[in-house]
Amino acid sequence: MLFRSSLRSPxxxxxxxxxxxxxxxxxxxxxxxxxxxxxxxxxVTVAPRIGFSLARDRTLRPLFxxxxxxxxxxxxxxxxxxAAFSSTAGLVRLRDSVLLQAVDxxxxxxxxxxxxxxxxxxxxxxxxxxxxxAGHAAIWLPSGNALAxxxxxxxxxTDVDPLPGVVVSLLPTGTQSADLMVQVPGGGVxxxxxxxxxxxxxxxxxxxxxxxxxxxxxxxxxxxxxxxxAVVAQNGVRHTLAGIPAxxxxxxxxxxxxxxxxxxxxxxxLVRLDRNAPAARTLDASxxxxxxxxxxxxxxx
Length: 301
Prior knowledge:
Helices cover 7% and strands 43% of the residues. The chain has one domain: 6 Propeller (Neuraminidase). The chain has one helix at residues 10-30, and strands spanning 49-54, 59-66, 69-72, 77-78, 82-85, 89-93, 97-102, 107-112, 119-122, 137-141, 146-150, 155-159, 166-172, 177-183, 189-195, 201-208, 213-217, 220-225, 228-232, 238-241, 248-254, 257-262, 268-272, 285-287. It has 1 helix and 24 strands. The chain is mostly beta strands.
């Protein structure tokens, strides 16, 4: 504890207040985008940053830790309603706009939005610059049946041909195309590739006949089913995580991690999608904790 100084003398009281101030400043720094210096200029050792998560109180926060030992940092954005991040940048939806935000806190672009239920999609990019993010950040606009893609200088909107169902997930695959996961009437999910040059459907492949939702990321396909969350690797190995409901939505928090949230918003899990993991490794879903509210300590003077 920092409060072992005696409060019986004025000097002790002032010391306690100064130490308290230093502690609160360090907590605020740890919650931000960048590295964390201490009061002496030396870096503070913190748990590894996994990515950026939209917490249940609708604040965007950095997510630290290891599976089964997760910690949410301080709030970066308040009032966010959706977020999707790669390891270099991400999309954050606020009330009437979507920001393309680099992980170093720089805002790369803005898209004005009047859409009740957009779908955000990001893909891995080589750097967190405007040019490097071209073709790796996109927004599905269901009311207009259109796709807004980041080109490196701004968002370009392309009208898309009629789809066989409702878009539940989106993976940008470059400046020429994008993959849409589409929930079809009667059940099941299709993977639909769309051309960004003319909005035509390039291909339409059924992924699963029973899944209620699906997501593709880092070479893995995630399927929400009545039996739990099925995770299928590129080599076809399939793991099922029981206990996760069929009604979920997906939000990548970095290249190799995805947040799976119940539609009710009551619970959220984190799944690691590691291409280098042994095929026999058992996948785990770690429940994301509730955000901690930092309140200043009260010191009687």
